[in-house]
Amino acid sequence: MTATRTGDRADGRAGDPGLFGPGSVTWQAHGDPMMWVAGIRALYLQALHPRAVRGVTQNSDFRRDAWGRLMRTASFVGTTTYGTTEAAERAGARVRKIHRMLGATDPDTGERYGLDEPALLRWVHCAEIDSYLHVLRRSGFPLTDAHADRYLAEHRHSARLVGLDPDAVPANRAELAAYFARVRPELAAGDEAHEVDDFLRRPPTHPLLVPARELLWRRVARLAYDCLPPYAHEIYGRPAPAPATVTRRLRATGTLLRGIPARLRWQLPPKHILRAMARLGPAARPAPYKLGP
User: Where is this region: Disordered (predicted)?
Assistant: First the structure.
């Protein structure tokens, strides 16, 4: 999303904190490196909604452009979290336009439906936000229950950006749990879900990079799968280790990644955090100790 960078420069609002601002839970949490594990968990969870996953498999070349798709998602999250208000709104408008243009077909009934159906957008939103919150907390990021509720309430902003009514998405942990309980009967692991599962476990790569895939990617993907909710493991038909084992692995991975200096991690493109700090000053640096009660 090259427009994001241009928007940060062009809107002229050097002090614009964007949609969330440095005092938000979102601003502090999204700078954590475990967001990458959380993003893969979200893909696993999202794939269990048959109508939603068809929208991906029937409209995306994710097998040939996996890295590009991942970076576009990361860029959207980074823009809406750390970009100016104008840049975030522009990113949301682009996503809404794409969703309006695309549709999918139910192979069993022949029904054609749009990807901007509120029920589908809500599922993708909830699976994503739940994954971010779950992985960060379980890996040791210091978020209290009150912080978690604030985080969910804040993400009414991101729900609006993708075309949802903010009042129609869960705004706290109780509402999120109730939502997943309601939608659970609609979930299934069809051919498309297993295609996503196979891809996440063995993404195509250059022969020279196969060792790196086996050593790094598969471990991250397995960790993301293992920290799914038990009902997801049941639907996929693949068990996971004991919860205590998964929690230890998440905490160990979080400790390792958080040991990399933040300034070094934030040098990776597209550098949203560094640009936000340049716009707002050093006080904009994400740091979990800033969060109040």
Answer: 1-24
Provide the residue ranges of all domains of the chain, joining segments of one domain with +. 2-290
Q: Which two tokens stand for residue 157?
A: 């902003």
pTM given for the model: 0.91
Percent over 70 (pLDDT), the chain: 88
Exposed, middle or buried: residue 111 (CB in 10 Å: 0-12, 13-18, 19+)? exposed
Give 94's contacts (C-beta < 8 A, 6+ positions apart): 1, 3
Q: How many residues does the chain have?
A: 293
Tokens of 186: 């609609």
Instruction: Give CA separation, 182 vs 123, 175, 187, in Å.
Output: 11, 11, 10
Question: 173-191 pLDDT, tens per residue?
Answer: 999 999 999 999 999 999 9
- What would the mean pLDDT of 84-101 be, rounded to a whole number? 96
